[in-house]
C-alpha cells in the first residue's frame, strides 16, 4: 500500500478532556498518583497511561509525538525542545565512549559542530563522507561504527541521500540509520525507506510560523522508551523538554503542513526554473540538472513536490550580501536564518548556518562564499515575486540585461 503521510495526520481523532475538538493542554509539571504502588511502577516504566513528571512525558507532548509518528510511519515519537535537543540525545543514546559514526559531510552546521567538536569529548569519533557515494560510505565503516547519519536533503547544499541504499548498508553492518528529515517533511518518508530513526527540527516547515524552536525523534517504541528511561535515557537525563503550551500550538500548525508544503514546493520549483533559465547557478532537487533529481523522484510522495529550499551562487559573498539586503529592502523576504516561514528567508550559509564548518572543508564540499540559501515562502503570486527579484538582480549586475 502507498504510504500517505497527510492522511495519517488527517485521520487522527482526539477528544479533548471536556469534549473540545482540540486536546486539552496539560498545564502541569507533575502528576498525582492515587497509590504509592502506581508511582513506583511508573518509575519502573510499567504503568501505561500514567504520567510521572513532564520532563519524562506530558499529555500535550504525547499528542504531538503521536501525530508526528503517524506522519513518519513509525511506532512512536518523542518531542524535544529543539532540533538539536533531538539530535544530541539520539547520538548520545546510540553511542558510548569509543564508538564511531559515519556521517554525511553536508549537514546542518550545529550537527556538524556537535559531531566534530563536542562528541569527541566522550571519545565518540565521526568520519564525514560524501553521502551520495555509497561505496565511500561503506568503506568508512569500522568495527566500532554504530550510527550512519544523514539528512534526506542536506543543509545547505541540497544533496539527496539514497535512503534505501544507506539502509541496506546499515543492515549489513548492524548500524542504526538516523535521518534528519527537516528539509523534506511529507515529501520524503525515511522510515518507509528503511531509516531506523527519523529526526526533525520542528522549528522549520512543520511548525511553519517561526515562533518557536522544537524537535522530534520518531522511531520504535523500544528506542523511544530507551530515550525516556529514568536511569539512562538521554532525553530524560539531558532534559530538552518542550513546554505543553508550545506542543499544543505546534500540533495545530502541523494540520496545515500538507497545504503549506505544496505551496512552498510550487513556488520554489517556479523560481528555480526561472533562475536557471536566467543563467544563474541554481540548485533545486526538482530541476533535471540536479544530480539526484531521479533519486529524489524515486523516493518522494509526489503530491508534496521537491520542497521549499533552493540555492543560487552569485559568485562572491559581497554580492550575496548586497542582493540579500536589497531583497529585504524591497520586502521580498527576510535576511534571516531558518526555514519554513510564510515569507521567503535567505542567508549565506558559508558565513552563517554553516560557519561552524572550517573554510577549507566548506570549499572541499562545494560550499562557496557566494551561495545564497532560500527558504521560499507561501507567496500567493510567485511570478510577481520573481519579477521583483529580477529587478534586484539586474540592479546589482547579477543578471546582465539580455541583448
Ligand atoms: C537540517 C537541520 N537539522 C537540525 C537543525 C537544528 O534544529 P533547531 O534549531 O530546532 O535546534 C536545523 C536548524 O537549525 C537544521 O536545518
TrEMBL record:
Q: Which residues carry this modification: N6-(pyridoxal phosphate)lysine?
A: 204
Q: Which Gene3D superfamilies match?
A: Aspartate Aminotransferase, domain 1, Type I PLP-dependent aspartate aminotransferase-like (Major domain)
In the record, biological process GO terms are: transsulfuration
GO terms (molecular function) for this protein are: carbon-sulfur lyase activity; pyridoxal phosphate binding; transaminase activity
Cofactor(s) it depends on: pyridoxal 5'-phosphate
> Which InterPro entries has this protein been placed in?
Cys/Met-Metab_PyrdxlP-dep_enz, PyrdxlP-dep_Trfase, PyrdxlP-dep_Trfase_major, PyrdxlP-dep_Trfase_small
Q: Which UniProt keywords apply?
A: Aminotransferase, Pyridoxal phosphate, Transferase
Give an example GO cellular component term for this record: cytoplasm
Q: Which family does it belong to?
A: Belongs to the trans-sulfuration enzymes family.
Designated name of the protein = Aminotransferase class I/II-fold pyridoxal phosphate-dependent enzyme
Species of the source: Wocania arenilitoris
Amino acid at each position: 500500500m502507498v504510504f500517505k503521510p497527510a492522511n495519517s495526520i488527517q485521520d487522527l481523532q482526539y477528544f479533548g478532556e471536556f469534549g473540545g475538538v482540540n486536546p486539552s493542554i496539560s498545564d502541569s509539571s507533575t502528576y498525582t498518583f492515587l497509590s504509592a504502588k502506581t508511582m513506583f511502577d511508573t518509575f519502573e516504566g510499567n504503568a501505561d497511561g500514567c504520567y510521572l513528571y513532564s520532563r519524562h512525558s506530558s499529555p500535550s507532548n504525547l499528542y504531538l509525538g503521536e501525530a508526528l509518528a503517524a506522519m513518519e510511519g513509525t511506532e512512536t515519537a518523542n518531542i524535544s525542545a529543539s532540533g538539536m535537543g533531538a539530535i544530541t540525545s539520539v547520538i548520545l543514546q546510540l553511542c558510548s565512549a569509543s564508538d564511531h559514526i559515519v556521517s554525511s559531510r553536508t549537514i546542518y552546521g550545529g550537527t556538524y559542530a556537535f559531531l566534530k567538536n563536542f562528541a569527541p569529548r566522550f571519545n565518540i569519533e565521526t568520519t564525514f563522507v560524501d553521502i551520495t557515494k555509497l561505496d565511500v560510505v561503506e568503506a568508512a565503516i569500522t568495527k566500532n561504527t554504530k550510527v550512519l547519519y544523514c539528512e534526506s536533503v542536506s543543509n545547505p547544499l541540497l544533496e539527496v541521500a539514497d535512503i534505501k541504499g544507506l539502509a541496506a548498508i546499515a543492515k549489513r553492518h548492524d548500524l542504526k540509520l538516523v535521518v534528519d528529515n527537516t528539509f523534506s517533511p511529507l515529501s520524503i518518508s525515511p522510515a518507509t525507506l528503511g531509516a531506523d530513526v527519523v529526526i526533525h527540527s520542528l522549528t522549520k516547515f512543520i511548525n511553519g510560523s517561526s515562533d518557536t524552536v522544537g524537535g522530534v525523534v520518531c522511531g520504535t517504541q523500544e528506542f523511544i522508551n530507551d530515550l525516556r528511561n529514568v536511569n539512562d535515557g538521554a532525553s530524560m537525563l539531558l532534559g530538552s523538554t518542550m513546554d505543553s503550551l508550545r506542543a499544543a500550538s505546534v500540533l495545530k500548525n502541523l494540520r496545515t503542513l500538507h497545504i503549506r508544503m505544496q505551496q512552498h514546493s510550487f513556488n520554489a520549483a517556479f523560481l528555480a526554473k526561472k533562475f536557471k533559465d536566467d543563467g544563474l547557478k541554481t540548485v533545486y532537487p526538482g530541476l533535471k540538472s540536479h544530480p539526484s533529481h531521479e533519486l529524489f523522484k524515486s523516493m518522494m510522495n509526489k503530491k508534496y513536490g521537491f520542497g521549499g529550499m533552493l540555492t543560487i551562487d552569485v559568485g562572491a559573498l559581497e554580492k550575496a550580501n548586497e542582493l540579500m539586503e536589497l531583497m529585504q529592502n524591497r520586502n521580498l523576504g527576510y535576511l534571516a536564518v531558518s526555514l519554513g516561514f510564510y515569507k521567503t528567508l535567505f542567508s549565506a550559509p558559508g558565513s552563517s548556518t554553516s560557519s561552524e564548518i572550517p573554510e577549507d572543508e566548506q570549499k572541499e564540499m562545494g560550499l562557496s562564499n557566494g551561495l545564497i540559501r532560500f527558504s521560499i515562502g507561501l507567496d500567493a503570486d510567485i511570478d510577481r515575486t520573481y519579477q521583483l527579484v529580477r529587478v534586484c538582480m539586474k540592479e546589482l549586475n547579477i543578471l546582465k540585461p539580455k541583448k
